Amino acid sequence: MTMSDIDAPARRERALAALAEKPDGVVEAIASAANVAPAEILDLLPHGAAITAGASEFEAIWSDMSGWGQILFIVHTDDIVLEAEGSLPPGSEGHGWFNIHGDSPIGGHIRKNNCAAITFVDRDFHGRRSCSVWFMNLNGSAIFKVFVKRDASRELIAGQLQLFEALRQRYVIA
Predict the structure, then answer these.
(1) Could you give the percent of the chain with pLDDT greater than 70?
(2) At CA 35, angle to CA 30 and CA 39, rounded to 5?
(3) Which of 66, 98, 167, 174 has its CA 20 to 30 A from that of 58?
């Protein structure tokens, strides 16, 4: 038994209390308040709100999302919340990286091997439905997130929402 196994009930209690205090808040802020990883908060969301796929699905999920059109790409660390709008360009592996380049402001290199899981999140965020795909690292934090965009009325773009729901559904375990 490890120290984290012994601390698991206390971690869960802290996470539940922080989530109850702000159920539609920023997951990273809720996790920080509870001194747990964001993945631990996602695990406590109501049934169906967080559906997880294995890291082996990285390229398949990325490829599917590259056909979604304009998305919101977010990198959230303790020091910055970087938001970029654009389409996800196709990617390919090379030299230990998943490389993305194309006609989009979103580009660069991702350490795909650091991805532990991919979680489809469908939950309220500040009173509005929010749908996103989180590429999680081994520490239980998001490497990056891809959000379904909103239209001028701040509603989720219907066609993109359907694509999100269809992709998420592939990973629902009956």
Answers:
(1) 96
(2) 65
(3) 174
Say yes or no to pLDDT of 160 above 60: yes
Q: Are residues 58 and 111 in the same domain?
A: yes
Same domain, 58 and 128: yes
Residue 111 has pLDDT above 90, yes or no: yes
Residues 74 and 62 both lie in one domain: yes
| Domain around 130 | 47-169
Structural domain contains residue 106: yes
